[in-house]
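yo, Pilus assembly protein PilM is done. seq:
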Amino acid sequence: MKRGKEMFGKKSEVIGIDIQKNVIRYCMYKKGYWLYGEKLGKGSFFKENGLKNKEELSDLLDEIFSEVKVKNPQLVIATLNSKLLIRQIPLQDMTSEEEIREFLFFELGQSISLPFEDPIFDLLVLERPKVAKSKRVKKRKLGLSKADGLRDDVKVKTMKRNRFAVNGKVPIIITSEPLLIELGDTFQKVGGNLVGVDFSALAYTQIFKKRINWGQTFVLVEIDSGEATITIFEKMAPVYVQNEAYNRGNWRYREEKGQVIPEYRSEGIALKKLGETLKNLIAYFENDISVGSTVERIYLVGGHPRLKTDVLEIMEMTNVIPTSVLEEPSVAEDLNIVPYRFLLAASLALKEVH
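structure:
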């Protein structure tokens, strides 16, 4: 564990946890200091539909809790990006919640190849006249007939607000509830309490919010451990996300003199292909998803050790859109002392929890 210099700011007892393959990165802001580090497991902690190596994950978490000297810590994690979707509901064409729900389930059953089971939907519904406002969030099980071609095992949370409509559509973020429950149970067994889950793209944009031109449509590309998560923001909201395992099989981590060292093969060729994928995805977004929209900027973030050099150069070569690495986090707690690969964990540690 390393300790950053003393800073003045709010006290936080939250540990941000970022899991990449078989590496756990952690960060905590405690008594004016940044504490951060990483732990190496023998194998990946994720399998196709859940967790694996749970006992080793628990042991490493226990080591982290001991190092930061916090019992029963509060933990905030990012959703696994390979288990994430964003879809948009065309509210302008719908007049009732039932229509919106039916549209959502039709999309789910007919046109979306889901990378996970039992997703949760956070759905924002338009306010209607003569209906009392309610801040209460209702969870319900939809009993739709399988004969209708609709799933009956998906839970929906409904909030009667419409803060994030983009061009008459409300983006919804879909992720895997069973995986989050499994992670929460694993944390709890070693005294940790999972108090928050965030979308990594939102966590990054929060700490870099003053470095981003929010008046533009832009792409945030997170690159780490042979994976890339491409998120498109339009009118300040994330409206599309795509995860690319561009070279995951050729990435390994090893430990040397207490340091976690990444190793990878064929990365240059894979990054060039990723750049082409990014270019094609942007064209698809502009021509098919948000017709008339123009992506004006590409921002790079993530734990790739060559992010500011080789990765940036290749992305600039394969795309004509201005591209840059987001730097100098703009938050009260000085994150410039935290190594770049720990910034996701640090941003999660700053998440407000209640």
